[in-house]
Amino acid sequence: MSNKSINLTEQLYAYLLDVSLRESDILKALREETSSLPTANMQIAPEQGQFMALLVQLIGAKNTIEVGVYTGYSALAVAMALPDNGQIIACDISEEYTNIARHYWLEAGVSQKIDLRLAPAMETLGSLINEGRSSTFDFAFIDADKESYAGYFELCFDLLRPGGLIAIDNVLWDGAVIDHHKQDVDTCAIRTFNQQLLSDNRVDISLVPIADGLTLARKK
Ligand code: SAM
Ligand code: CA
């Protein structure tokens, strides 16, 4: 028995997947195609995709935001869990990566739910606010450049309705957050973000040690 998060060995992780992962063929195919790319470790873990799909169902999400699409795995997992009239505003700057995403979204029959905006996410989120969409979104997933996490969080917070949920990825950053030899921009940004969120009384929070660490923040 353990009163702290268990240390997942390779074998225990394999067991976790064996007894709980219900990955559709299309998600699996996308994960396999992405695994051949040199940047494959940017993709979220499959059990995390399943967890996020469960979250959007639990909160009855309809309008959602994704910051950082890459080859589209997290967006696909969420889109498949949304109702028919659900929507993801999906932000990325890479045409190359998102071309792969588009292909799988189409094949999965969810492309009408995903509005891909190819522009710096700060601009896309800012324009949503200018269009009067503050307090109208149910869920946001933040997984783009780490330096901008604090900025993305503020804009997503504005766009979320009270009771809406923001999920922020890579908050444990492969353990670098506790290695004080690591002072690169990304690591420092995540450390600062985590520390600031702890005292942010506008949200209820939980840091879930799934994959590379996923913080959930519910707007009060
Ligand atoms: N959520 C994705 C998944 O499940 O596979 C992984 C996202 S990957 C870690 C980060 C993505 O953020 C990359 O595709 C990159 O092109 C994008 N990105 C980087 N800087 C950005 C910016 N300023 N605005 C929007 N997207 C950006
Ligand atoms: Ca990530």
Structure description:
This protein has 220 residues and is of the alpha/beta class. The protein has one domain: Vaccinia Virus protein VP39 (Rossmann fold, 3-Layer(aba) Sandwich). It is built from 8 helices and 7 strands. The protein has helices at residues 10-20, 25-35, 46-58, 73-81, 95-108, 121-130, 149-159, 185-198, and strands at 63-67, 87-92, 114-118, 137-142, 160-169, 203-208, 214-219. The structure holds S-adenosylmethionine and calcium ion. The site of calcium ion has 4 residues, from loops.
Tags for this entry?
single chain; 220 residues; alpha/beta; Rossmann fold; 7-stranded mixed sheet; 8 helices; 7 strands; 42% helix; binds S-adenosylmethionine; binds calcium ion
List the helices and strands and how they pair.
Layout: H1 10-20, H2 25-35, H3 46-58, E1 63-67, H4 73-81, E2 87-92, H5 95-108, E3 114-118, H6 121-130, E4 137-142, H7 149-159, E5 160-169, H8 185-198, E6 203-208, E7 214-219
Parallel strand pairs: 1-2, 1-4, 2-3, 4-5
Antiparallel strand pairs: 5-7, 6-7
Helix pairs in contact: 3-4, 6-7
This protein binds S-adenosylmethionine (SAM) and calcium ion.
Calcium ion (CA) is lined by residues 44, 143, 169-170.
